[in-house]
């Protein structure tokens, strides 16, 4: 717990750095743009799709489109935001390493676009897969009221903890099969913290970059301890 808190504090202090601000601007713009396109697609496609079955009127379609868009935003935001960040993760990691771990950064490698794309697609696949596995558990927990929310929150905490630490670890691992040195408990706590931040409006736009920076600190501190 103290390691994660310290990593998040350091990450927050670096949010004003120009390289981090540039990543924030790009990732937020692309993420919002994708959801605007999705909303436009729903608003245009829903009436055409339903017109052969029901004629609900323009206002009703507009309300349904808004509801579907908001649901998609709630359900897909984490997936889209982290997938978009994958393409700029190097810039966040490099900024953190340059400020806090300059010696370690000398041995890092820059991930090519193909590997970034592969990591992004892999992240999406894992997210969809684990959330699908969480659905039966959530259904069993419906009588508890809060159980389904806890099930999905836990699943996404596990996913985020891995993705946000891998962004730094993939630049430094020598063996393709080597696992991240960040401990499982720290990864889970980081993932839970970022998943919680993603539930807060406006803060959720900062959460992926904040998490990537904090994940970089967790990886490097464990590497430094292992090499001490």
From TrEMBL:
Source organism: Altererythrobacter arenosus
Membrane topology type: Multi-pass membrane protein
Any one Pfam family match given in the protein's UniProt record, by short name: EI24
Location(s) in or outside the cell: Membrane
Signal peptide range: none
Keywords assigned: Membrane, Transmembrane, Transmembrane helix
Protein name, UniProt field: EI24 domain-containing protein
Domain of life of the source: Bacteria
Transmembrane helix listed as a keyword: yes
Main subcellular location of this protein, as a coarse class: membrane
Keyword Transmembrane: yes
Membrane-traversing stretches: 20-42, 62-89, 132-159, 188-214
């Amino acid at each position: 717990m103290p390691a994660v808190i310290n990593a998040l504090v350091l990450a927050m202090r670096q949010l004003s750095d120009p390289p981090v601000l540039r990543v924030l601007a790009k990732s937020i713009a692309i993420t919002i743009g994708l959801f605007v396109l999705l909303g436009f697609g729903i608003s245009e496609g829903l009436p055409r799709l339903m017109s052969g079955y029901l004629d609900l009127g323009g206002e009703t379609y507009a309300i349904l489109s808004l509801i579907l868009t908001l649901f998609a935003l709630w359900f897909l935001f984490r997936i889209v935001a982290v997938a978009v960040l994958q393409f700029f993760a190097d810039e966040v990691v490099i900024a953190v390493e340059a400020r806090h771990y300059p010696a370690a950064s000398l041995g890092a490698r820059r991930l090519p676009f193909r590997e970034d794309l592969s990591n992004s697609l892999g992240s999406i696949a894992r997210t969809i897969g684990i959330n699908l596995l969480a659905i039966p558990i959530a259904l069993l927990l419906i009588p508890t009221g809060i159980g389904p929310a806890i099930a999905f929150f836990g699943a996404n905490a596990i996913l985020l903890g891995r993705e946000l630490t891998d962004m730094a670890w993939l630049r430094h691992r020598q063996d393709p099969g080597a696992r991240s040195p960040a401990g499982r408990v720290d990864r889970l706590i980081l993932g839970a913290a970022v998943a919680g931040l993603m539930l807060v409006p406006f803060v959720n736009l900062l959460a992926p970059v904040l998490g990537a920076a904090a994940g970089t600190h967790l990886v490097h501190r464990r590497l430094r301890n292992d090499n001490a």
